[in-house]
Amino acid sequence: MILGILKESQQDNRVSLLPEHVPTLVENEISVVIESDAGNRSCFEN
């Protein structure tokens, strides 16, 4: 399975996946693809 995380719209400061949850997904054989700068408005850098 591949999980894609997209950057939210300009009016939205949320991010759909927090960085600390990525290792759990990868351990369960889920590939995670994150759009560049997806978490910037939520204070998460690339």
Gist of the model:
The chain is of the alpha+beta class and 46 residues long. It has one helix spanning 22-27, and strands at 2-5, 31-34.
Protein traits:
46 residues; two-stranded parallel sheet
Describe the 3D structure.
With 46 residues, the protein is of the alpha+beta class. The protein has one domain. Helix content is 13%, strand content 17%. It contains one helix and two strands, in the order βαβ. It has one helix at residues 22-27; strands at 2-5, 31-34. A two-stranded parallel sheet has the order 1-2. The N and C termini lie far apart (22 Å).
Set out the fold topology.
Layout: E1 2-5, H1 22-27, E2 31-34
What order do the helices and strands follow? EHE
Radius of gyration (CA) equals 11 Å
Strand order of the largest sheet: 1-2
| Global geometry | elongated
- Please identify the structural class as seen in this structure: alpha+beta
Major sheet description = 2 strands, parallel
Instruction: Name the beta content range.
Output: 15-25%
- The overall pLDDT average reads 88
Number of discrete domains: 1
Q: Give the N-terminus to C-terminus distance in angstroms.
A: 22 Å
How many separate helices?
A: 1
